Amino acid sequence: MSVAERVRAIVEPLLTEQGLECVDVEFAGGRLVVLADRPGGVDLDALTEATRRISAALDREDPVPGRYLLEISSPGLERRLRTPEHFRRYVGATVSVKLVASVEGDRRATGPLNAADDDGITVDGRTIPYQNIERAHTVFEWGPAPKPGKANPAKAHHRDQKAPAS
Prior knowledge:
Layout: H1 3-17, E1 21-28, E2 31-37, H2 44-61, E3 69-73, H3 84-89, E4 94-99, E5 108-116, E6 120-123, E7 126-129, E8 133-138
Parallel strand pairs: 2-3
Antiparallel strand pairs: 1-2, 4-5, 4-8, 5-6, 6-7
Helix pairs in contact: 1-2
């Protein structure tokens, strides 16, 4: 069992008690990252409490050899996709996929995630086996662009503004 799997077994029940879902656990380079979420998002108070509980449990159980940095956070707007369950959850969303170097042709695929099963995914009509995926994440789509000819309020300049003094 990997470090991430051992840690997941410890933290998943703790997060569930708080009404949180353990989205992912990653351990690499002395950094242990636990991603937690819940419908509507997770706030700082929930993450602080999760950090306190998880840190105490990991101190008791000691599933990670040596020193490590513990990070508890939300998955963010653009969520990393690693497992078939992650991909199934986001069918219909826009995703960006980088393929392993050994794949012939275009190594990037971006578009709607049409399907996901136990063998692989379909992005914008292209079928990709999981073993060919190096990295994948959802793509957060910002609101519509301003209409042509409309000023961007954040960049609007007023005539009565004076230039800074030199």
